[in-house]
Amino acid sequence: MVPDASHVETRVELDFGAIRKVLVVDDSRLQRRILLASLKKWGFEVLEADSGEAAIEYCATDTPDLVLSDWVMPGMGGLEFCRAFRELDSDQYSYFILLTSKSEKQEVAKGLDAGADDFLIKPLEADELRARISAGARILDMQRELSRKNQLIETALNELKLAHDAIDKDLIQARKIQESLVPELKGTFGKSQVSLLLKPCGHIGGDLVGMFSPGVNRLGFYSIDVSGHGITSAMMTARLGGYLSSTHFDQNIAMERRFSKFYALLPPEEVASLLNSRLIADTGIEEYFTMVYAIVDLRNGHLKMVQAGHPHPLLMRHDGKTEFLGEGGFPIGLLPEAQFQQTETYMQPGDKLLLHSDGFTECQLADGSLLDEDGLRSMAVECAEDNGGPEFLEDMFWRLSQVMSPDSGMTDDVSAVFFEYNGP
């Protein structure tokens, strides 16, 4: 049934691209001989079958590049063979031409529905056959080139996925390390307490909050926002967490050891200047950060604060009055000779102070506007009526998530420090 395709009397090598092996299916031996003569002359490896059943059996083990099949055959006709051929599990696409005496549009439509790519009307002419095969070869060349590129893309995507999974794993671990910089989200100091909120917009963020107390009635707390996002900002927060350590006072630049007995809190403006000098001295670092750092004497509520480009803290008095503190100031790490001014006030029992990042005030709302300071004030006053401590901050963040634009979502880290003063 399948003759030796290597014996060719007259052979003219033509370039038909992807088409090398051709299967001729026809119950007419004469018709097969006519086709084989031309196909072998053009340089194809030609195989033949006298029925659709024999052809499908062959194709199940060896897929040809091109199939030339008669439409009308006993048993499995050309349409049935074409459908069965297309259902075979094959990694490559083959071009299928139906040979027919039918030229009606409805018949052509049936052939296309069955999976045929082209038609040739009998009796066949060699030039037309060669032209149709050339057209099929161009299509197969493009299809196989596309398949090759798709395989390359799939391989690249798999490699990217592996790389992404590795990076994602590292970022998850980095987030754990960053979370370790804020081991406690709540601290109680006498009757007063400090609560912290840190919600990065990605795995890791550039915000940092913290608190420390070197002794009874002495308390410091801060809110920091490093420029940019991602790994670089997170590395900077890790460094700043060491500068303002709540456990290793000997490394905390906001403290000074006195008489080899105890640690004292340095004035906030001096702490800002020290941080600015260290950041400016580090060559190659382009990041800067904003900060509010405050210390408070819990015996009398005396609050001293430095604001370095950070949003204004909100002071909520026990009588319902509110005010934003600070004069703005320069971010830390921008100017070598930057001067930082201290703000002072006295807090009364029942007063509350909210330090926050611009993730609150610059949050885009559903109508396109920003929450801004007035929106923050209203939100904080409402939350303070029902909650205190960490619950207050979680309520603030929940309300923020409800009003932010669903299109933009959370685009910046959100952090806050909430200090509740309840007297000595």
From TrEMBL:
<protein>
    <submittedName>
        <fullName>Sigma-B regulation protein RsbU (Phosphoserine phosphatase)</fullName>
    </submittedName>
</protein>
<feature type="domain" description="Response regulatory">
    <location>
        <begin position="21"/>
        <end position="137"/>
    </location>
</feature>
<keyword id="KW-0597">Phosphoprotein</keyword>
<keyword id="KW-0378">Hydrolase</keyword>
<dbReference type="GO" id="GO:0016791">
    <property type="term" value="F:phosphatase activity"/>
</dbReference>
<dbReference type="InterPro" id="IPR052016">
    <property type="entry name" value="Bact_Sigma-Reg"/>
</dbReference>
<dbReference type="Pfam" id="PF07228">
    <property type="entry name" value="SpoIIE"/>
</dbReference>
<dbReference type="Pfam" id="PF00072">
    <property type="entry name" value="Response_reg"/>
</dbReference>
<dbReference type="InterPro" id="IPR036457">
    <property type="entry name" value="PPM-type-like_dom_sf"/>
</dbReference>
<dbReference type="InterPro" id="IPR001932">
    <property type="entry name" value="PPM-type_phosphatase-like_dom"/>
</dbReference>
<dbReference type="InterPro" id="IPR011006">
    <property type="entry name" value="CheY-like_superfamily"/>
</dbReference>
<feature type="modified residue" description="4-aspartylphosphate">
    <location>
        <position position="70"/>
    </location>
</feature>
<dbReference type="GO" id="GO:0000160">
    <property type="term" value="P:phosphorelay signal transduction system"/>
</dbReference>
<dbReference type="InterPro" id="IPR001789">
    <property type="entry name" value="Sig_transdc_resp-reg_receiver"/>
</dbReference>
